[in-house]
Amino acid sequence: MTDPRIAAVGTSPLGRTDLTGRDLFSVAVTEAFEGLPDPAEIVDAIYVGNQSESYEHQIMYGTLMAEWCGLRHVPAERVEGCAAAGALALRHAVEDVRSGRRDAVLACGVEKMTAGGTAGATDALSAAFDRATEQRSGVTAPSQYALLAQRYLHETDATERDLARIAVKNHKNAAANPRAMFQRETDVETVLDSAYVSPPLKLFDCAPVTDGAAVVLVANEDVTSTLSVDDSVRVAGVGAGANNLSIADRNLTFIEGAHEVATQAYDQAGIEPSDVDIAEVHDAFTVCEALLAEAAGLAPRGKGYESPLAPEDRSAGWTDVQLSTSGGLKARGHPIGATGIAQAVEAYEQLTGTATPERQVDGADTALLINEGGVADAVTVAHVLSAA
Amino acid sequence: MSDNTNTNTNATDADTDAAVDIDVDVDTPDKYATAPRSPEELTSDSPFTLPGFFAALDEGRLLAAACEDCGTRLVPPRPACYDCGSRNLKIERQPETGTVISYTEVRTPPPALADRAPYTIAIVELDSGARLTGRVTVPYADTEIDMPVSLSIRAPEEDERAMALEHELEWPIHEFEPA
Prior knowledge:
The complex is a heterodimer of chains A (about 400) and B (about 180). Chain A has about 400 residues and is α/β, with parallel strands linked by helices.
C-alpha cells in the first residue's frame, strides 16, 4: 500500500459560460492531459462528482465523461453528495489507488448550474435538505447557512463586519488566481452594503452560482514516475462521514462532522493541525470559513472569524494557516459537484509552488481540504495533501 | 459562550442505564408504538413511516421516536436512534411549546413559494429537547433567539399543494407562532 499521488490537474473556466457540462469537462481534461499519453492508456476508472440532474436533465455522468475522454469498459460512476460530491469522487479514487486495486483513477466534478437561472439553482439546491420537514417549510441554501450564521453571531464576539472581512480576503486571493470566477477585489463596505439574501447573510457573503468542471489524475507512484510530469503531490490522509440530514438536529456552532473527518485525515497523515500550511475549506458562505477553521483545529472555538488576519494578529490558539488561498468557494466560484476537485487543484498548485506569485504561500508543504455537502456537515470529506 | 448543543437527551452518563422517562402516545396503537422489528410493522399506518407521522400531525399530534437507551427524541420517527444506534424506541407525543434556537428570513424562496416571501424560518427546540425547523408566523424583525413559540398545524394552501408530490398533497404544514 502506497500513498496515492495527484499527478495532473485541470479546470474549466469557472463562471457563467456557454459550454455545457460535458464541454466543461473536456476543457478540464484537456488541460490535465496536456503532454501526457491518452487517458485510455492510463486511467483504470473514473468518478464524477455531480450535484443535480435538474440543471442539464442528465444523469449517467460517469458513463458520459468516460466516453468523452476516450474511455470505455472501465468502471465509471457519478458520485452524489450535493456540494461534497467532488471530494467524495476524489476519495473513491484515492481509496482505489491506495488499496492497490487500481493504478490510476480520474476524479472529476462537473456542474452546469446556470442552466435554470437563480430559480433553478435555488430549487435544485433545496433538494439537499430534508424533504419531510425542511423543504416543506421553504428553506433554501442561504437560509440554512443563515441559521448557522445567526447563531454564530449570537454565541461569539463576531459581527457582520467580521464576516465581511472573510469575503474581502477571499476576493483578494481570487484576484490573484487565474482560475477564479471573480478575479477582482472588493472592500468591507461593499460587502456590508450588499442586499440581505437571508439575514445576517448578504449577497457578498454567498458563493456564486457557477458553471465549471475540474479533474485530477490520482495515480500510484509507479504510474506517476512514468508520466512526464514535473511534479506531483501525495494524498497523505482522508476522512469522510455523514451527520444528520436536518440541521436542526446538529450542533450549529461546532461542526462536529468536519471535526471528525479532519481528525481522521490528520491521523492518517500523522500530522497535527499546526502542521497545515494552507487550507481550502468549504466557504460556501463566509461564516463557514470561521466555523470550519474551528472544527479543523486551526482556530480556537469562537475565534474562527479571525481568518483574514495575519497570523500574528490572531487570537492565541490559532495556527499560522492561510485559508482559501484560491479565493475559496466565495470568489474562485462554487460549481457544486466540481468544488471538491477545484480545492485539490489549488492545493496541487500551492504544494508544487506553481500558484501565481501573488497568492503562493512560501514553503507550503501541507494542505487540508474540507468539502461539505447539504448544509454544513450533512456529509463532509477531508483530505490532507503533502508536497513530500 | 452559551451552548447550542442539542439538549435532546435525558441521559447524563452513557455508562449508566439511565431510566428514560417516555410518555408513550396514547393514541398510537400498541403494535406501532415501538420501533419496528419486522417488515410487516412498517405500513403507512405506523408513525415510523412518513404517511403515519403526517396522519398523526394532521390530528394535531407531533410524534417523536423517543430512545429508551439515551433519551434522544427523533422527529420524524425513524427505526433507529442516530445518537446511540439503539432500536429501542417508543412513539411519544411531543410538547407543542419550545424556544427559538436560531432564525432567519427567506428572501429568495424556492420558485413554488415565490408569492409567500419574505418569510421567517426558525430552528425550534421543543420543551422535550426535540428540534424542528419550520416557518414562523411573524416577520423576521419580530423574531429573536430564545423567543418562546408554540406549534401550529394547518392544511397546505394552494402554493404548498402546488409544490407537493402526489403522496404529500394532504400532509399538513407545521409552523411556529409566538407563545
